[in-house]
Amino acid sequence: MDFAKYFPIWDKLTPSQQARILDVSHPLKAKAGTVLHNGSMDCLGLLLIRSGQLRVYTLSQEGREVTLYRLFEMDICLFSASCVMPNVQFEVVIEAEKYCDLWVIPSCLFKNFMDESAPVASYINSLITSRFSEVMWLMEQIMWKSFDKRLAGFLLEESQLEGSDTLKLTHEKIANHMGTAREVVTRMLRYFQGEGMVTLTRGTIQITDPKALQSLTE
Amino acid sequence: MDFAKYFPIWDKLTPSQQARILDVSHPLKAKAGTVLHNGSMDCLGLLLIRSGQLRVYTLSQEGREVTLYRLFEMDICLFSASCVMPNVQFEVVIEAEKYCDLWVIPSCLFKNFMDESAPVASYINSLITSRFSEVMWLMEQIMWKSFDKRLAGFLLEESQLEGSDTLKLTHEKIANHMGTAREVVTRMLRYFQGEGMVTLTRGTIQITDPKALQSLTE
User: Which of B58, B62, B133 sits opposite A89 (nearest CB)?
Assistant: First the structure.
């Protein structure tokens, strides 16, 4: 089992902890679009990503979304175990954005390890702080950056993630990532098209001048 | 020394840890307005609040502020020790908003304790998660709530903190708390005045209809 290779602090676990974690962790495969965690209803456990991509987002009461961050291969998803984390007073939705091959470390085991092992608790500290940093970055973007800069940054990030200049993304989907309305996205994309930075066709956005988009974000 | 009474997990420290913490922690008094931590320049340590009030905020590149959260008696301020916390990729400013009587637990000691003690590391986890929750709450307010609702909530919170219906607050100061421009605050306060919810005089805001403000926030 190559679990040890993926679990970041494997060497800091005792042999008995290593045996327990191998004993109770189990694989999970999820198709793109699967919701793995939805607010406080679920408590699956820590998710260790072997391959794939998770999206973590919040929902407003009216059903509007904003993407908080994404997780990739070798990342650990924490908030799918939020039931055993004290003081988590917010709810997130976690979905498989691409096909995911995961390991699940059950919440109760994770809680035991945090209580008994300083290295595990410290490592979890560093994970929470990473996610906190991503949310702070996002909040600062929302507070201080105009929407054109944010959208330019989003398109470049997507292009990098997909390894392509042609993005198959509806305006609705972009609006859900960015926590805004579809009309706002459409208006800005048309402006970008007018400036020669993108070409819009039905269901796709082609980035034609990445340098111009990049300089817009700066 | 009544340090033990204020330090939340005193009973979970070993006698040797208790002795070390008493040995190196020191008192600090700060006048209202004192900046105790400014981004990555400082690394004072954990601050344990005996009395007073701290404000933690971020600054945009243009110098605009937004208050992330406040800390009160018996709270512990974490990010004044951010230098020893892995993965903190954001900067905050921490100021004494009222006269503060504090204990400082130096960063190096705090780091040692986190590395050797699962209860300390777990407790720090719960603190980070609390602050994370406050920032998530704030982000959701900024994303989904209109400014009138946010301002009504802010005025009621201030009134509760000060134990008074008369707030000595300039429009500029409110703008700094809420991450907006002074003109936006002035316009909304004048609207509130027109609706009979507040009375404005130079440098003060008197809340005349708290129920109406409350129902606005809901």
Answer: B133
Residues of B in contact with A60 (CB under 8 A): 140, 143-144
Contact B143 A179 (CB under 8 A): yes
CA distance A208 to chain B (A): 30
Query: How far apart, in whole angstroms, are the C-alpha atoms of residue B41 and residue B85?
Result: 14
> What distance in Å separates the CA atoms of residue B105 and residue B58, rounded to the nearest whole number?
23
Q: CA neighbours within 13 Å on the CB side: how many for A82?
A: 23
Q: How far apart are CA B161 and CA B108, in angstroms?
A: 34
Per residue in B95-137, pLDDT (tens digit) is 999 999 999 999 999 999 999 999 999 999 999 999 999 999 9
A198 within 8 A of A187, measured Cβ to Cβ: no
Give the separation between CA B190 and CA B195, rounded to whole angstroms: 9
Contact B133 A62 (CB under 8 A): no
Residue found under tokens 């994970």: A127
Q: What pLDDT, in 10s, does the model give residues A37-68?
A: 998 777 899 999 999 999 999 998 888 899 99
B114 to A116: CB separation less than 8 angstroms, yes or no: no
Which residues touch B15 (CB under 8 Å, ≥6 apart)? Answer: none
Residue B201, pLDDT score: 92
**In this predicted complex, what is the ipTM?**
0.89
Query: Which chain B residues contact residue A179 at CB under 8 A?
Result: 143
What are the start-end ranges of the H helices in B27-170?
107-116, 118-144, 147-162
Provide the strand spans (E) within A112-154: none
Q: Is the Cα dihedral A134, A130, A77, A39 positive or negative? A: negative
E strands present in A7-162: 26-30, 35-38, 46-51, 54-59, 65-71, 76-77, 93-96, 100-105
Tokens linked to A74: 């070798």
Residue among A89, A120, A133 whose CB faces B89 most closely: A133
Average pLDDT, chain A: 93
| pLDDT reported for residue B43 | 87
Give B14-48 pLDDT, tens digit per residue. Answer: 999 999 999 999 999 999 999 999 987 778 999 99
Q: Collect all residues of chain A within an 8 Å Cβ-Cβ radius of residue B177.
A: none
For helices B171-178 and B182-194, angle between their N-to-C axes, nearest 10 degrees: 110
Rounded-to-integer distance, Cα B42 and Cα A208, Å? 44
